[in-house]
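User: tokens in, sequence out, please.
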């Protein structure tokens, strides 16, 4: 695994997660622990409206941190509209120490490298049930209240989990843009560490 990413994970203090967030995280934590006990790969599909910010951050951090702690999961993301993975999200990943390949286009399929012996994580905007996302046997993790309220039923999901994060979009084109995107990324990473640091 990328040494910069390992260092970052080691520095994340998951003991700072407050009780309110722990209560929201518990259903996801219980789900992945149960799947691990059953020796079944957990499929996690992180869903927000545009699949451009919070769901993408969640997909990437869930995959990397679960692997760091020895969990075998498949991590996906999707939306209820197709836009693009926002370039500010990608810039935040780069500031975290990831190597990102941008092939260009209206909805680029960015390749995020985190390990020299693993395939890159490919992120792009898609509807929650578009390929390569699972059609059944997955947990639908709703990362924004808009998608949670406007998409009450996710076909094929065996579990639906509400886990909203504040949208860094509110700070686009402001002096705090980078700070707030990194803040949200690190919050999500820290909470994923809380979920998977169970062994």
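Assistant: Sequence out:
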């Amino acid at each position: 695994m990328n040494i910069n990413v390992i260092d970052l994970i080691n520095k994340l203090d998951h003991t700072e997660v407050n009780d309110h967030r722990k209560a929201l995280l518990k259903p996801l934590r219980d789900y992945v622990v149960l799947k691990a006990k059953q020796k079944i790969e957990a499929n996690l599909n992180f869903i927000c409206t545009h699949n451009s910010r919070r769901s993408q951050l969640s997909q990437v951090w869930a995959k990397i941190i679960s692997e760091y702690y020895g969990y075998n999961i498949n991590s996906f993301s999707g939306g209820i509209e197709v836009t693009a993975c926002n370039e500010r999200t990608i810039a935040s990943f780069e500031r975290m120490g990831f190597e990102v390949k941008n092939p260009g286009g209206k909805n680029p399929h960015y390749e995020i490298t985190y390990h020299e012996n693993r395939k890159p994580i490919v992120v792009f905007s898609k509807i929650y049930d578009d390929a390569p996302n699972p059609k059944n046997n997955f947990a639908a993790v709703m990362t924004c209240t808009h998608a949670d309220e406007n998409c009450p039923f996710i076909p094929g999901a065996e579990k639906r989990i509400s886990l909203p994060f504040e949208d860094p979009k509110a700070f686009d084109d402001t002096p705090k843009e980078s700070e707030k995107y990194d803040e949200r990324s690190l919050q999500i990473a820290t909470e994923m560490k809380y979920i998977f640091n169970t062994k």
